[in-house]
Amino acid sequence: MGVVQARMEAALQRFLPATDIVPERLHRAMRYSVLGGGKRVRPLLAFAAGELAGADPARVEVVAAAVEMIHAYSLVHDDMPCMDNDILRRGKPTCHVEFDEATALLVGDALQPLAFQIMAEHVIADSSVEQIEMLKILALASGSRGMAGGQALDLAGVGKSLSLPELEFMHIHKTGALIRAAVVLGARCGHGLDAQEHGRLERYAKTIGLAFQVVDDVLDCDASTATLGKTAGKDAAQEKPTYVSILGLARARALAEELRAEARAALSSFGAPAARLRELADFIVLRKF
Question: Which of 66, 124, 139, 159 is deepest in the core (most CB within 10 A)?
Fold first, then answer.
């Protein structure tokens, strides 16, 4: 994983505007928000899926960076006072604390189109039709029917009692949509999978996306702020419905293990080429931060 994480750090360094380009402050804030932190789970998934599909790593690098920029912008906005009002992210002050609220808003506004710009100006597919489809996949995963819509449902659910299916629907969009996009786009950079194999890969991605959120909810409950690099216990403090609040801590942990098993089962027909995807399923569920 370390090799991919280092490669992504270098790629993001290249793709982000330099701090000596006007407007310098905005570009400093963009780099502050993206570089030097995070697990890079979505790029790791993109590279693992790309490896399974025989993709050129240079293509995967572009889509992985694009997905990570969308993810970073969502964190910047999520931390703002009008959303979760958080002061700590990845072990350092959140963007609006380090800079200001207006700059943080603009960081998200700038990172989102930059993601689509780099996907549009690099060759990431064998045909223009396929490349446009990949842009559409990321757009859908990012918008009102994906991540942004899930965030709207999250805000609407504060202080309310949701059923488990309602909670899952919210997180399939808020967290899962971008994780699924990372896997799907990584695989689409290659050409080694048929329609059924793409379907199994999407099942893996959907399952592991839910598992990621279940584990996040567990960690928010029983890990420290120092370990997480973000404020622990904020879900309970803000009266947000979570897998822990609905199921209890023990059952939430068990659900994460069940989802891990389902994700690995979806990969059963791929054999050795899916080893990295299996490892990432384990990492996502067994992580402590």
Answer: 66
